[in-house]
Amino acid sequence: MGHETFIKRKKELARQEKQRKKAARRLERKEEQPRGGQRPEGEDPDIAGIRPGPQPKTY
Fold first, then answer.
1. Distance in angstroms (rounded) separating the CA atoms of residues 33 and 19
2. Do the Cβ atoms of 45 and 39 come closer than 8 Å?
3. Residue 12 half-sphere exposure, CB side, CA atoms within 13 Å?
4. Does residue 48 contact residue 39 with C-beta atoms inside 8 Å?
5. What's the distance, CA 45 to chain centroid?
6. CA-to-CA dists, residue 23 to 10, 17, 29, angstroms
7. How far apart are CA 40 and CA 48, in angstroms?
8. Tell me: the pLDDT tens digits for 1-23?
């Protein structure tokens, strides 16, 4: 009975350690990302730089 408890505890500690490493990697990637420049007030970043009308053809 005690052996199963030991295995479960070891498994849970491994899961927690994996989550800590994953969170650290996320934080590291987030800090490495280039910061967005200043956008003009009221400009939607999803459509920034898009011109109205026909778009050039891309093949």
1. 21
2. yes
3. 6
4. yes
5. 18
6. 20, 10, 10
7. 10
8. 678 999 999 999 999 999 999 99
